[in-house]
Amino acid sequence: MADIVIVASAFGAAHVLEQGHHAYVPVAASVGAAGFEVRRELLPAGLDGTVSAQLLAALGRLIAAHGLWAVYSTPATLYTDDGALDAAAIRGALAEAQILGARIVKFQLGGFAGDASAEVLAQLLQGWRPRVLVENGQQTMGGSLAQFRGLFDALESAGLADMLGMTFDVGNWEWSGEAPLACARALAPYVEYIHCKSVAGEGARRFAVAPAGNDAGFAAVLAALPGDVPRGIEFPFDAVDLAADAHQHVTWLKAA
């Protein structure tokens, strides 16, 4: 049975910004989650854009005290828009994740264009405690199947495939115009964490929703992916009875 992680934004991004991540850690623990995903964009930042090390350390201690393990989600990209490794962003996000005590740090891919710079990337990632994963995003850049296949092919060719894993976001593929099931079949060997959500609406009006219990397409994607990797809840909970809805979805996703 897979560990279930609750992504902080599932409690409502505006609420997390107002009340802080710490307000929702006890809720995540009480409804049966194993992990809690901290969102860097929902943390308070100083005038220079940095997040307080004291805040990160305190949040990490709170998460551990409630028997949870942490994921650190950052909007930082591995590659800049012109395809170069973003060494400064990588080091900064890794340092924050390590202060938090995260088990996983999740990056966006960015503008990878075929040159993985595998040896340089390996040097940047070496020596850090959190496991580094890269997530498919909602835009064509950083959200195409061809980019991810190219990245992992390049790492395998360099004998460095084990240094980096993937966060597979089921719903994000629909934003970027890819078929989630085809992507799952192609990328399953690299997947170490799954973001679970469905998508409603069209075009710019798309939004994340809970997968229906009878959604055969979502079930097929899960079946094509590793069954023993953590599954993250990224869709919004029902604010009318937030804890009850969270508990229901944690229980369902464990068994899905």
Descriptive report:
It holds the Pfam family AP_endonuc_2. It comes from Ralstonia wenshanensis. This is Xylose isomerase-like TIM barrel domain-containing protein. Residues 27-253 form the Xylose isomerase-like TIM barrel domain. The protein is α/β, with parallel strands linked by helices and 256 residues long. Helices cover 38% and strands 20% of the residues. An 8-stranded parallel beta barrel has the order 1-2-3-4-5-6-7-10. It has a two-stranded antiparallel sheet with strand order 8-9. β2 (35-39), α3 (53-65) and β3 form a beta-alpha-beta unit.
Features:
single chain, 256 residues, alpha/beta, 8-stranded parallel β-barrel, two-stranded antiparallel sheet, 10 helices, 20% strand, globular, Xylose isomerase-like TIM barrel domain-containing protein, Xyl_isomerase-like_sf, Xyl_isomerase-like_TIM-brl
